[in-house]
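sorry for the late reply, my laptop died twice this morning and i had to redo everyting from scratch. anyway the thing you sent over, i finally got around to it. pasting the sequence first so we're on the same page, its 165 residues, then the predicted structure underneath. double check i copied it right bc i was rushing
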Amino acid sequence: MTDPTYTADEKETLRASLDRHRDAVLWKLRGLDDEGLRRPMTPTGTNLLGLVKHLGSVEYGWFVSSFGGEVEPLWFDPCTDQDMRADQGETTQQIVEFYDRARAAADRVIAGRALTELGRPAWRDVEVSLRWVLVHMIEETARHAGHMDILRELIDGATGDQPRG
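ok and here's the structure:
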């Protein structure tokens, strides 16, 4: 049987690519205890859970805020490095659920708009198409999933974008 995403239209192909990277991000958290999820692995303090928090923040920003959707109130400032760290008293569950809600809100934007529709991020004086945002978020999510792959390998040796076996 042929995977339907191999022959899908442009929008569905972009969405499937984004979902594949989003799922890899969440897989990187599975099986680790809280200490492993929060362990700073670089001189700047990058950790797995902080990257998930950041990705939730940018999903809300690029998709939801840019296209006029309602963004939930944040407990951190996404314009500082607070969105890259999981050390402001957040629980693991809080951050994962935040990412899930951001994904769902972004998916509603994607489903309800044409690729050519324009939005305007509050932090930039430019209009962006939904197509551009989808491509940008595939890049952003894949980039950080790659960071997470390295961090996870350093923690327990697990690599790849999905469980083996």
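The mean pLDDT is 91.
thats about all i looked at so far, will dig more tmrw
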